[in-house]
DNA sequence: TGAATAGTGTCTATAAGACAATATCCC
DNA sequence: GGGATATTGTCTTATAGACACTATTCA
């Protein structure tokens, strides 16, 4: 029998036997009165107007899954530095704009997408990451299903938009399969995004951002395999997914597939569009 | 039999049967020539000197484990806003200073610690998080063994240093057990640090930052239980840790413990001191 | 009917949880 | 020896991987 105490679970009849007695430790928090010099130092430091500040941007790694590989959206750099290279869509953070809001704005204006999954990824701030000036970039990653992705970039009609195919090695290639140059440290940002996505597969129903509303278990398996970069066991994958409670069977089947059609599912947290 | 192709594992004799044939997908990457207006927009945007910029700081969540609970180091705010409240040690990011370097500098100057584990945590940038001005803060978390922690703050001899005990609920209390006020959004930053630490337990030998050089398996178990906020199964924990390869048995035993002494271990990646 | 993949059932190996039995220290 | 905890070994249960077998669609 167990009960909650201070947020810890204790087994009433076992704790005494299982736990080792601890030597007493004396508290150490000290609260002496603030001294004058420390206070002055603080005040001086907060006179921030006197200091130069780095530029602050957000960069978006918009990921989609297409033809068995992850793809990201890039913008071709029109100028030096890195002229002609693939850069991530990004923008400066406004003074009266939350970071998440800035990310959503860039996603809307430069990628043509609203309401998709976005999450803060990591902040890149190496001093020399941009040769022009000090720029610290808060990177975000977004996931979107491929049809939305393509509709979005088609709607923007912007010449500089590019889609890069991300190889498991981390290399990025264009539609012809040729490896392309990536601007600044954006290759590293993309690699970090893929890594994060991989980590999320274990505990989050990631696939639902990358799949259409209705999909088969095999579709979902392909998403996992592509993200992870290796095969997963089919039987075990099926069992795990069905046991997770994240999937709802629609009672409908694939059509026109040339073999026994698979059942269609949707994710439990998203009502059918 | 399997072989590598494009970074994917394929089972030679099984792929045909296991994989469903995919409908062909046409590539979509387009590389039309850059247009003049897009170029001008880019240039205008990069004229960054014209824009106001948020202040950029790093804040440190220095965590240690003491008396069965996580503790963090705070600084008492000497001024408004949040006068008297507990704030995280932090500082502005210098123009010629990497983010990680800034974090290490704050850790050294304000916490008295060098060479400890530090990792970027998350970037907090809500517009209203500091009422004085727009401040975006890249939060870092650091882990240190309690004796180092206490030696460090003792060496600084600064009156405003405070140690907060972090309750599993997220509340922070002083040495007397009273809940204290936390400045700005720093309670949220601390909560994020604890959450991250929990997540890392699954795949990283986190304990080694929080334990002395020599420790018993039970010490390590206590670290996990405190961080996770719940008990773990002793037998399984033991097996997992010993099988992980992260531990090296020292062939020495505890002394003066009033019961059968446990074997002492050290972490494999850290040579004895 | 045959090709192709979906889905089910079963067996085995591995890891986790439970618990008994034995070992070793200090008093 | 008695108290206390460490450590080992065994049993049970849950989960993953492997694989055979049946089901269903289209050509």
Would you kindly provide a written description of the structure presented here, covering whatever features stand out?
Two copies of one chain form a homodimer. Chain A is built from eight helices and twelve strands. The model of chain A is unreliable at 1-40 (pLDDT under 50). With 273 residues, the first copy, chain A, is of the alpha+beta class. The first copy, chain A, has helices at 15-18, 36-45, 99-111, 146-156, 186-201, 207-210, 217-228, 234-244, and strands spanning 2-5, 8-11, 55-66, 69-76, 86-87, 90-92, 117-124, 135-143, 161-166, 172-173, 247-253, 263-267. In chain A, a hairpin with a 2-residue loop joins strand 1 (2-5) and strand 2. In chain A, the strands form three sheets. In chain A, strands 3, 4, 5, 6, 7, 8, 9 and 10 form an eight-stranded mixed sheet that branches. Chain A has a two-stranded antiparallel ribbon with strand order 1-2. A two-stranded antiparallel sheet of chain A has the order 11-12. The first copy, chain A, is 30% helix and 26% strand. At the A-B interface, strand 2, helix 2, strand 3, strand 7 and strand 9 of A face strand 2, helix 2, strand 3, strand 7 and strand 9 of B. Chain B binds a DNA duplex (27 and 27 nucleotides) through helix 8.
